[in-house]
Amino acid sequence: MKLMTPQTPTRPIWEAQGDEKRREVRGMFSAIAPTYDRANAVMSFNFHHRWRKFAASKLDLQLGESVLDLCTGTGDFLPIHRTTVGEAGVVIGIDFCAPMLEKAVGKDSAATLTIGDACSIPLQDQSVDGVSVGWGIRNVPDIDRAHREINRVLKPGKRFVSVDCAEPRAALIRIATNVFRTPALGLLGKLVGSSDAYKYLSESTARFKSREELAASMRSAGFVDVHYKDLMFGNICVHWGTKP
Ligand SMILES: C[S@@+](CC[C@H](N)C(=O)[O-])C[C@H]1O[C@@H](n2cnc3c(N)ncnc32)[C@H](O)[C@@H]1O
Predict the structure, then answer these.
(1) Does residue 129's CB lie within 6 angstroms of at least one atom of ligand 1?
(2) Is 7 a member of any domain?
(3) Which of 2, 186, 221, 231 matches a 20 to 30 Å C-alpha distance to 158?
(4) How far is the C-alpha of 131 from the C-alpha of 22, rounded, in Å?
């Protein structure tokens, strides 16, 4: 008789939850860090800079203020924030994936880059004048907790903005997006050498909270004046709110 070692059931990364999701997501971003910026440029037709500027404008930051870019990754929000807060301001980037953060080095040479988790932000209560998250919230295992943490570190009267992928609301655009997205992401996956990572993008977007659910999570974390706006025909959505 031949004894077989039982196989650990493996589930795709987009179905992982809790600490398993945290581990898998960190591993995936470690693997794609070297090609992330290139892939981002191709996938967004380089529009991501515009979307970031629009999102950053919702923070209403002033010269000399402090801003945290959470899930900062390769740090493309950092120079935008620096332009707004100036040399006297404080720009902080936090991410839990060292290889992504390494790519952020030099994007704003004065920024402070720190390893940290969005569900347990390594900053004091009421310590920053603004928080941005770009394409990060979708990857976090406990979004409600991350929203409460963001609220905790913000000073009263200050704002949080998050930009992420979304499912278009118009049926025709949704169909067109799906027709285009699957082969485009497949091609991109080949280009950067990880088809799973780019399958994760569409699968995690399809499983992501709806616009209204995200807004509700922000409100229950304590934000008021919560708004959202679609970009790119509803493939991208920006949410923002104020800590009262
Ligand atoms: C799609 S990338 C976005 C990077 C960057 N914000 C941008 O706009 O290009 C998502 C980033 O979120 C980070 N991330 C995911 N979950 C996180 C968590 N729980 N805590 C901290 N960072 C996290 C990943 O390591 C990755 O760098």
Answers:
(1) no
(2) no
(3) 231
(4) 21
The pick from 22, 67, 71 for probing ligand 1's pocket by mutation, whose C-beta has the most ligand atoms within 8 angstroms, reads 71
Pocket test for ligand 1, best of 46, 53, 119, 139 (most atoms within 8 A of CB): 139
Q: What is the pTM of this model?
A: 0.92
Q: Provide the CATH number for the domain around residue 149.
A: 3.40.50.150
- Cα→Cα distances 130→45, 65, 91, 241, Å: 28, 8, 10, 10
Residue 163 CA: nearest ligand 1 atom is 8
* Residue 183 covered by a domain: no
Answer whether residue 224 is part of any domain: yes
Confidence label for 180 from pLDDT (cuts 50, 70 and 90)? confident
Question: Quick check: CB of 117 below 6 Å from ligand 1?
Answer: yes
- Asked whether residue 189 is assigned to any structural domain, the reply reads no
Is pLDDT at 5 greater than 50 in this prediction? no
What's the domain range around 151?
17-167+209-242
Q: Which of 29-33, 111-115, 147-151, 166-170 shows the lowest mean pLDDT across its residues?
A: 166-170
